[in-house]
Sequence to fold (527 residues):
Amino acid sequence: MDIAQSLRRARQLRGSEMAVADGEHQISWMGFCDRVQRLCAFFRTVGLKPDDRVMIIAEPSYRYLEVYLAAPSAGGVIVPVNVRLSSPELRQLIGHAEPKIVVSDDVYGGKVHEIIGSHTDIIHIRANNGVPPAWAADALDYETGISSSAASPFVDRQGDDIAAIIYTSGATGEPKGVMLTHHNIIFNALNTIPYLKTTDKTIQLHAAPLFHTGAGQRVFTATIAAASHVVMGKFSPQNFCVTVERHRATSVMVIPTMLQMILDYPNLLDFDLSSLKYISYGGAPMPNTLIRRAMEELPGCQFSQSYGMTELSPVATSLTDEEHRGISGSDQRLETVGRAATTTEIRIVLENGNEAALGEAGEVVVRGPNVMKGYWRRPELTASVLKDGWLHTGDIGRMDKKGYITLLDRKKDMIVSGGENVYSSEVEEIIRRFTGVIDCAVVGLPDSQWGERVHVVIVSTEFNEKSFVKLRDFCKRYLADYKAPRSYTVMKSPLPLTASHKVDKKILRRQCLQATEGAPNDSLKIA
Fold:
């Protein structure tokens, strides 16, 4: 089984029915598969060989879905890239992945062209309508390539062949490209389709950024189920409501920040959202009050949660709608992330490697056919997390007697802000370069809009609010904007240390929380 098999099946089952809708653009499975096959042929014509990487840097669109499915179906590897990365980060990623082809739209194509200008072996393809910008003179045209290529059979791949490389933030600032095989992706779909209740009648709305593994893998999952796709472009509550109403979307995946924005949208009741039946969420901790509010205000929807990470393709556990509501004999377990997915095995282990007792805290480790092949060109890092077939997540949790898992903390020093992972050490490295900063430590603080925000504690004798504005601009020169600190605290004394002489971030975070306790976000020093 490979990705191409799911395309052939969907065409066979639903040839004349809708495959993809994107604004005015709507196409059947027959037409969609024809375009994907032509795109595969185009990729091979320009030199794509088995295992070559196809990178995409673009806004969500029907073309994004075509590239996402064509790359692995042509024998290559899809590499979706976070569009919010800075130029230095993007340059580093391109150097690490060494793509054969980079597909971009006009929003990001200029930046891409500037970076890959010196890489004469990289084929740049412009996927856009309208008047070509100046940089496009050095790029190939997407639609011309499709129209001039004859539809040819997909390339058959083995289950262990790499289908996707998804980059995540590394704690050291170095790229971490997670290698997901065709079987990883297929088994992830088999894990998720039952509790998502995805069928060939599902109309799947892609509302979250497709470069994220949770949203991107939903492209594969919906295709494997022969469901229909709806693309809405950049997320906003209004765009969400308009798209659901227009295309009668039945299912969507969101992160908590998106759900909060939807529920807070003042014109929510002006739209007919009655088609929406399934809302799944993940990617960041969900406040108990928020999910209860959603269940009350959207009574026609069923809810499910999943926990996992890119390295797990990405789902490890699920919490079904029945478990959310405590019906049909199931327990209401909103404080948990659910139980192991169908083909997944989970253990809680102690520092000494022994399995923890029920209710005892330890590291969450996972085994199953959804576990990644490894990190692209990082064998040492792969060996540090993959041990005897078990993926060591770095998350701390406990398991009860029925297998429900409660997450307690992250072993890794990571902040999840608006669904984006931010490693504090990466941010600290940049901040220490800023004039006047003697030392610093970055922690995550609760935020009503983003779940967590990046907060920096700065040791300095001359730092003030104007300095902070300049610091944010400085950080954005080297990092994605969501990694730049949004609030700060200044200390004149050294940072507190643990017994092993490391910065004690638990104390720092507690001190910052105490200092801001009860204060609304807009009263803090936030950019």
Summary: The mean pLDDT is 93.
